[in-house]
Amino acid sequence: MANVTVYFATNRVAQGPTTDWHSYRADIVPPTDTSQITYATAFVQGTDLAVEGSGTIATISHPQAGGFQTGVAQDIVGSGKNILVFIHGFANSFADSITRAAYNREWFAASGANAADTTVIVFSWPSSGQLIAAPPHLLPDDYLRDQSQAGRSAFHIASFFGTLQPLLTQARNQGRRVFLLAHSMGNFALAGAVESWFSHNNPAVTLFDEGFLAAGDERWDSFTLPMGARLSRLRDLTPRISVYYSVRDIALYLSVSVNLIPRLGHEGPMHKTDAALFPPTRFRILDCAEVNDYNMLNPPDASHQYYRRSPKVRADIAAAMRNDPGLPGGLIRL
Length: 334
Prior knowledge:
CATH superfamily: Alpha/Beta hydrolase fold, catalytic domain
CATH class: Alpha Beta
């Protein structure tokens, strides 16, 4: 078992002391107000890769509205490790988002690749944290509420990126790499954030060395929409994007039935075979449907969690993190 430091920002309204993790629930700060976003450090104890859902928040320290305290920012920059920025998916309470970030940090570090031993920073948007694993447990009303909150978080996440930018630049100037990982509905929130970043006249700039989009609950045409909509300009914030998808992802079946459009994490991106739209030097599009090195039935949404349950998928992500020169681009079947 491991004890893990997780740096976080959240646009959840604190209903009590900001040092008490119970305070952060499912209410959102005003959509255009970034001064109320809380930045802090959480210490997670008992993370065990062999135990699903392991880890508990022991303490939260150095909370501050609007940005990390100077000492915390210095700790992030001075960690000497690559940086992993994580945006979680639906059905995650605040505690879930923090412990999931801790688990992900340990999961990738366990690959054995030094580059995958990262400092993790999570943005916790106000998902309700209800159990919505798969039909019949996944109720459309709960799903749509989470989707609405993810969408309302777009401006906040764009602001979070802006707050992180000088820290990420300092880390990169030290020769370190920065990764973005969005899972499930975190891709929906990310798409809104990318659109918000550019609609507010922020520049095209390399924030991340690689973006990992896993089981994305975002429309499959997101990369090819006009006028800078959704994910169409994510390529202006990172030189390479890895998209992981699977038609066996049970959680995304309900998403398709509710949204009435294929999902990025289910079918892969629309026109994925078009190398002009998705040049292999910039895009890796990975079909994970045949990956079978983990239990797909336990828990019920296991097929939606392959990015952190499959050693084969982990090995691919770790190879991208260490910038393996032999890593193939384009369409890939894992």
